[in-house]
Amino acid sequence: MFTDTHCHLLTMERAGINIDDFFGSLSDVKDGFLVDIGTRPDDLNNRMRFSETVKKYSPDFDYLYFSAGIWPDDEYIANPAQSVETLKNCIKPALEQKNTHLCAIGECGVDRHYNTSDKGQAFLHNEGELFAAQIELARQLNLPLIVHSRDDFDCTYHILKNSGWEKVVIHCFSYGTKEAGAFLDAGYYISLCGSITFGGKNRQEESRKLINYIPRDRLFVETDSPYMAPVPCRGQTNTPLLISHTYDFIADALNISKEELNIAVTKNSSLFFKINCTNM
């Protein structure tokens, strides 16, 4: 198993992946960890049940961690304050646990693929409010923030910079080196997923330039499963079992082994999420 800093186990299950079989296949491999990501204000408890499945196969191996956050969906943008209050109430019991595996707030942010200007300025303002409120929650709880940013670098960057919170990773990074430079200068981390393997010769060359532009100590690797399975599995339902292909591509661009890359990513992300990764 390679470290996967961003996966959606509940959505994988809904997509037809047998979670018992999935964790059973990881039971003998102890060289990384997974972070299961929240997207709804009330989904944390349902996702934390996956810890019991992990214990069934690996009672002495804690490799599953969780974030809690609100993806910018219409339902939650319609009432940002109430949505974040629900999120707070769901987080509270987890934080009261002695050995909680809640390690971050998110994913949250800005999406211009679905949330276009056609929805109106009031809607986009509420989207920003929902994002900003979760940044503030991360600050209050001293937790790192996982950011979703699609097709609107400027808005994402503006809201983040105004917040002053620097414990940030931009997940599923989809911009170029210019935008990467701005995020890196702000102190943020950048996470690459299977989409980095997509495209023809020209796109892959740009991807390699981006990979080499990101400092190795600021780099994460993720699946965003069940979405965006890497080449050569593109089109399949993605799982963390396929992340080795993404590691292969990135490691090749860096001229290192994927095992060496995994060590670096695991170190970076365990420090970021404050995970005591004793399995490395």
Number of strands: 8
What is the CATH class designation? Alpha Beta
Spatial strand sequence of the major β-sheet: 1-2-3-4-5-6-7-8
- What is the CATH architecture assignment? Alpha-Beta Barrel
Q: Give the name of the CATH superfamily.
A: Metal-dependent hydrolases
**Secondary-structure class:** alpha/beta
| CATH-defined topology | TIM Barrel
Biggest sheet record: 8 strands, parallel
Poorly predicted ranges (pLDDT <50, ≥5 residues)?
Answer: none
Shape: globular
**Domains, number:** 1
Strand content: 5-15%
- Report how far apart the termini are: 11 Å
Mean pLDDT value: 95
Main attributes of the structure:
TIM Barrel; globular; 280 residues
Tell me what the structure shows.
The structure is a single chain. 46% of the residues lie in helices and 14% in strands. It is of the alpha/beta class. The protein has one domain (4-273): Metal-dependent hydrolases (TIM Barrel, Alpha-Beta Barrel), CATH 3.20.20. The protein has an eight-stranded parallel sheet with strand order 1-2-3-4-5-6-7-8. β4, α7 (121-141) and β5 form a beta-alpha-beta unit. α2 packs across α4, α7 (121-141) packs across α8 and α11 crosses α12 (258-273). The longest helix is centred in the middle third of the chain and has 21 residues, at 121-141. The termini are close together.
